[in-house]
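Researcher: I need the complex structure. Ligand is magnesium ion. Inputs:
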Amino acid sequence: SRFERYFLMNKDDVIEYVKEKTNLFSKDSVLTCEEIGDGNLNYVYRVSEAKTNTSIIVKHAGDVARISDDIVVSTNRINIEANILQLQAQYAPSLVPKVYVHDDIMNCFIMEDLSDHEIMRDALLSYKIFPKFADDITTFLVNTLLPTTDVVMDHKEKKKLLKKYINPDLCEITEDLVYTEPYNDINNRNILFEPNKEWIIKEIYNDDKLRLEVAKLKFDFMTHAQALIHGDLHTGSIFIKEDSTKVIDAEFAFYGPIGYDVGNVIANLVFAYVNGVTFHKTEFVNWLEQTIKDVLDLFIEKFSKSWDEYVTDIMAKEPGFKQWYIDQILESTAGVTGLELTRRIIGLAKVKDITSISDPNDRVRAERICLTLAKKLIKNRDTFKKGEHYLEELFHAL
Ligand code: ADP
Ligand code: MG
Ligand code: MG
Ligand code: MG
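Model: Output:
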């Protein structure tokens, strides 16, 4: 077989692979294959059989990133993703795609085709409203995060998982792109929107207090092995339709701070919100205000309730400990929200919510709203204790 040693598969290879290596289609089936990936790193193929109207998705890792040959990342990331998807399926079965096949030689896995859903960032760019989103995503967060912490999981089991999901290459990408480069452009990879350049140099690069707080957050990310986090939970990693939410693309998963996941969700809702404000989409903007608030408040409520039900560690049951633990998650959530808001404006990887704003004055304003809010979130992160506090600062920044 050609598939006993890794190589980067093209469409024809993928068809042959699926026929030869899986039982998903019969050997004489007529299959078509298209590449549908839009991410920065991987190849995503849809393989379909017209006769039976069935299709599956093959996600496959190359040894350099699609976005840049300079980014060399271990192909093992695809195995991390396949494994964690199966773990998440135990904790939050309705909120992730089903995995059918996992192959750690060819560095690919085969999953359920979610093409009846839409990538949430795209849906938000058409100003669609999803009333169930806050409820679904907070269930995903609480149900996947709390059970993998030391307060719930057996400590030795936890350490086994910690070792399995150490993920140094993908963590390095985050450390560089989120926690370092936006504040000093050390690798010359930042992309500043020209009319905002001077403002950004003054307000971000030259703000010593801000950089100190980012440094603290960076070492929290690297050393706080709190829970098995998704690690890349932006709206491009969420498939959505009216009655269903599915979280995909967990290749950045590792043991890190819970606030990293929660903060990424919030920040990416803020991008959609700022776009909605720019184009005067009143109903959409109102829904997002409610949703930003609900994500925070429902997260706290569900986390607190699950804590009472599932915590096992005896010391974690000391009165006052739960509140301390939640406060510390909220502080990290605010910090990370600010970091994600900043890096998507200043750093290499942009978001369409902002870059699609074509009027330069509107774009300048949109970017400054995000960065003004971000600075507050990072510097005063211990003051963001509930959804309302985020909205207050967001309104100030407008
Ligand atoms: P990357 O790691 O390269 O960002 P993603 O997992 O985010 O890859 O997938 C990239 C794109 O491929 C998604 O935005 C989506 O359009 C498509 N895709 C990924 N998984 C599925 C799936 N299970 N069903 C349908 N389309 C998918
Ligand atoms: Mg992706
Ligand atoms: Mg990815
Ligand atoms: Mg902390």
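Model: Summary of the prediction. The pocket of magnesium ion (ligand 3) is lined by residues 39, 41, 232, 249, 251 (CB under 6 Å).
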